[in-house]
């Protein structure tokens, strides 16, 4: 593949709509597509969050009295599916990946701009289709895992729409993954070596490898499942000789790596944010790169830890115990390196920094419970309980969603040219952090003491803890209000950000805010030291910025 | 100065370690233990809790300390120290988690073995399932555990059928069908489980045992209750609209009370 760094590498200007209408069009500009992903994802986050609110309202009393039981199962299925496939995966990958990766490799756009736009435009119809299935004949009600035979025996319409929707979203992911790999490996500016790339590029490379290797397996599995539902084949239907455990193996071969598809980009984003706001070089760049690749390799061989109670032979349990627990090693390296990045810095306690540090604290707890869950004897007691709900939310909300907020606070000036209000941002962080921990920390106790997950009714002894959890959820819901207000207020009346309000060195800050269509007016800058902060480099930093 | 920082590091590590152990021994988050493998499980839980507390408190303290200690003071400009890495430090914090993880893995293997997880599946006292031709999966404790127990005369075979939304227990001896599980204390129970429709899961939190009940694939679970009383049986796998209501009880009786129950409900002469 040849590369051109001159303006005109992307499709002609006339194809690119202008003004706010460009965000409602088939734009080919990676920055527009990135923001389309972000806003669309946030729209679905609000819907998924409302469903979570409905779940927490139902669980404030032990009886199933807020909504019919079938509807409860539909709500929890939609909540899980929306949050994973329409919020976190598209945003940490699609939104920030599309916006940042071309800057980071010194390109004017992604390798395949049209494929990029197609990948995004698969998402809104898939999401709307998934949600409207609720009004057609009831949405899917077998959980986001869609385990057969339950998914075969529940009403077919909702389940089939769920499968179609997830297939389209998976397709979008694969298109995105291919595009990121091609962009990072083939569109790098001459002279820029792989080991000089910002860490988010490595995270996206690792994530994209996982996406390309594992998502097709999910797609194939769901196609077979749809055959079982529509054509009454017997791949997974035990009454026709099928094997339900085979579905679980295939499903988790994708869905465990999906956790890393959600957190690896978050790791990358945090690695960009921490050095800038602590004015320190990223500690241990090389080990950070190797730890990402270690997580990718290990992430592909741990799926059966989701099946310790499904009837797995002892050798398999042992292998997956050890493999899963060992992911703690590369992950631990990253956490120690982040703390070392903070150490001795000049830390600005702004909203971006607070959310990133909140992420570190939350994710450490999620990681510790993850290592515990990897142990077969421990897992057999807490599997499919609220302990797992708590652990999972500490990973994906306490991890990925905290990083999404951190990233929005960090890159908002680049996206819009306006600054966000920092005081409102800190207020947003405090309520989110308290609400999140109040909601999910007590759920560890619930799981250990006997409350299974995915239930609309439960033993009355768990009521008080569930109510505390619901108060936390309410706080989390309320915390979106200062955030939304901040966004609207700042877009309309915010202070001008200037090109580089954080005095950062990564390439996206070395152009105007917001950037022009092809990223730079002239030639793309060659940034060989994206983390060149520190006492010795501060003079160089200032010179480079001039 | 390096001496002072070494002393401070050592002291804070010591306090952290003692604090972690204290929390793990004083914060009890588990329900009563009522089966022979529950105390073994609790032992593992305690070790994981101690390590988890130390790591979590340590990391959180480090982050909060850094945020306060190294915060940018008003009027302060410039960058932090120019520190890009430290090979020996990175080797240290790669090796330490690796050793901890390896220790946890080996320790939990030992616990797994003590809970009966490594017992050959078909090796049980009753011999009830040796003739089965279908594929049978075992949960933890699929083989007999603690067979040296004096009360453990022979395992009690019970068949469990799970369906939306009930657990049905069948006692081959006496041909009893019951919606509740009655078992004698101190005697090993051999539970053979089958599902009529979707996947369910048999879970008794006080026994620390759970095993999926899978359609088309029988599963086996062996356990020995150690406390008399009434404990909940909970379905832990999403099985349909009334999943949350799919609950039953396991009633653990003294042997004599159990024999009486068996006699009263038996369809045949025992």
Could you walk me through the main structural features you see in this protein, from its secondary elements to its overall organization?
The complex is a heterodimer of chains A (546) and B (270). Chain A is mostly helical and 546 residues long. Helix content of chain A is 66%, strand content 0%. Chain A has 17 helices and no strands. Chain A is globular, with a radius of gyration of 23 Å. The model of chain A is unreliable at 1-5 (pLDDT under 50). Chain B is α/β, with parallel strands linked by helices. The model of chain B is unreliable at 122-133 and 143-152 (pLDDT under 50). The chains are: A mainly alpha (546), B alpha/beta (270).
Short description:
The complex is a heterodimer of chains A (546) and B (270). Chain A has 546 residues and is mainly alpha-helical. Chain A has helices at residues 30-58, 69-105, 113-121, 123-136, 150-153, 156-186, 199-230, 244-278, 285-299, 314-326, 328-342, 351-374, 376-382, 386-416, 422-449, 463-493, 538-545.
List keywords for this structure.
heterodimer, A: 546 residues, 17 helices, 0% strand, globular, disordered N terminus, B: 270 residues, alpha/beta, six-stranded mixed β-sheet, 22% strand, elongated
Mean pLDDT of chain A: 92
Q: Enumerate the strands of the largest sheet of chain B in spatial order, edge to edge or round the barrel.
A: 1-9-6-2-3-4
Mean pLDDT of chain B: 86
Instruction: Indicate the structural class of chain B.
Output: alpha/beta
User: Which H/E pattern describes the elements of chain B?
Assistant: HHHEEEEEEEEEEEH
Sheet of most strands of chain A: none
Classify the oligomer: heterodimer
Tell me the helix content of chain B. 25-40%
Largest sheet of chain B: 6 strands, mixed
Q: Number of DSSP helices of chain A?
A: 17
Total count of helical runs of at least 4 residues of chain B: 4
- Percent strand of chain B equals 15-25%
Our measurement of the CA-to-CA distance between the termini of chain B, rounded to an integer number of angstroms, reads: 82 Å
